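Support case: user asked for a sample of complex input and structure output to validate their parser. Sending the pair below.
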Amino acid sequence: MIITFSSTHQAIHFERLLLGRFAIEMIPTPRDITASCGLSLKFEKEDLSSILDALKAEDLSGKQLYEYIEEKQIRKMITIGWEDAYATKA
Amino acid sequence: MEVKIDARGLACPKPVIETKKALEGINEGNIITLVDNAVARDNVSKLAKSLKLHFSVSEADGNFEISIFKGAYAQSPEDMVQKRPDLANLVILVGKDTLGEGERELGETLIKSYFYALSESEPYPKAILFVNSGVKLTTLNSQVIEHLKKLTEYGTEILSCGLCLDYYQIKDFLQVGGVTNMYHIIELMNEANNTITL
């Protein structure tokens, strides 16, 4: 899964927040996502729930959550709203 | 024809230079180099590898014997069949542990981003050379190790400058690739079609 940011500072802030606690990775935003500052955080889906907990107090505006889905060898990006993510989790 | 070189006690990079000379001196045959330390063993092995020659290493009494075979059939059919992704004849020289000039925080982020994207983009470089504080990227706590490991699986050679590791006192913390010296660095850069300096 991927979180994109509208500013580099936000990306670095989130990285600091999560680094060491989760297996996250700062990557250049995949080309199929255009609206981004160019940096994204990548993590495994199984960590989503704990990461959502860790981000509870954060301002999530300007940040977008995506899920990579592979269907018949075609990679697809699915946008996931933060509210939906928190709702599904609960 | 068989040539034996006793390179024990010779300082780096002498064993490599002597082995290379001997290899250039024969058309076909075996060159057997005897060295007394692991760094020299690795460097001589690397020479054989870079020349695409078959070699074997054996150890006895704390010494290492590297036997290099040079001949018309240096490349076995087996090797030819083993297909790896194409490597560009490109060498990347990494002279520091950040990308670009400016705020360190941003530079650290950019270098991570760089190696991630590099490990995802074909063709892969032939070699990546780490010098000066660049060696901090191949050692402990570096966040690019996984990307570099991935590149080595594709055949990219990852090499850190030995004296730089020594200077920063992080020689024991190397996580990926091998240790090299300035002669090998020069050789790789001079033979490359393209060298990118970061």
